[in-house]
Amino acid sequence: MLVLCGPTGVGKTEVAVGLARKFGVDIISADSRQVYSWLDIGTAKPSRELRQEIGVHMVDMVEPNRVYSAADFARDALAVMRRLQREGKPFIVAGGSGLYLKALFEPFFEAPKPDPELRRRLEAETSPALYDRLRRVDPERAAKLHPHDRQRVMRALEVYETTGRTMTELSMGMSNAECRMPNDRATEFEPVYAVLTMERDRLRRSLDARFDAMMRDGLLDEVRRLKESGFGRDTYVANAYGYAELLRHLDGELTMEQAVAEAKAKTRAYAKRQLTWFRSLKNAHWFECRDIADGVREVEVLLQQVLAGT
To answer: How far apart are CA 183 and CA 185, in angstroms?
Structure first.
């Protein structure tokens, strides 16, 4: 199956939509921000009308105050992919979250299913209290997380309380027979990676221009509505690039100019990290994306081969 990926701002969604319209495929989104409802402008989320027209899945899965891990994504995405396969509906995966893609195609341990009661109990605690507890039970995992990264801190505690093992232990492969996912699940869908790329300076300019366009489209108002609705510092909003900086602006910590400059810098740094991850993929097909039409033309030959099984 084709997996269309690349750094943020390179045009993945637009190229995926072009392919969907031309070949009649559905799209499984692998975007770790678009899974959250309410976050629309700042995630460049496809409109509801577009999603209904071509079939886009794994968008608006949870509200920003809920934990949604890579393991959650893999479980839910696999369910959608299996259903589409049964229905004879072709599909592609499109997104830039390396962690989501790794969880989907290279799962390293059987993550426990969400426990609603446990999640409600964890959500009732403050972020400092949660992080403190994680430092006691899994200091290695805690050291990799920001104390205000509430979503991942809660997920690590959830795994520990459900399995009796820390995420660090599980990811190191302790008791492999128990921790690893069955082989058939790991190889159920074989990814053929198509990586969209762009000349570095052009990508930087594109990212800056895209954020400016988001601001004109009302991103600050979107962040304000999130804050007023209770989705503030203890939710995913405080960790999402663009949203986090504007939230700090609304809280009086940054001027508007500082917030915009910091959001752009962090987005550029994120794109750089994404490219580093994609370069680690073996046998990936790389395509220079000069514009959307060109991107569709570049990738469609590979998609045709994948759909034909050649």
So the answer is: 5
Whole-angstrom CA distances from 55 to 97, 147, 154, 203, 211 are 20, 37, 31, 28, 26
The predicted structure's pLDDT at residue 39: 96
Range with lowest mean pLDDT among 76-85, 167-176, 260-269, 297-306: 167-176
Residue 118 identity: L
Q: Are 9 and 203 in contact, with CB atoms under 8 Å apart?
A: yes
Helix (H, G, I), strand (E, B) or coil at 62: strand
Q: In which residue are the tokens 């058939």 written? A: 184
Spell out the domains of the chain, with CATH numbers in brackets: 2-109+189-308 (3.40.50.300), 110-178 (1.10.20.140)
Q: CA 229 to CA 223: how far, in whole Å?
A: 10
Longest Cα pair distance anywhere in the chain, in angstroms? 57
pLDDT digits (tens, 9 = 90+) for 52-103: 899 999 999 999 988 888 888 999 999 999 999 999 999 999 999 998 999 9
CA 66, 130, 126, 244 dihedral sign is negative
What's residue 110's pLDDT?
59
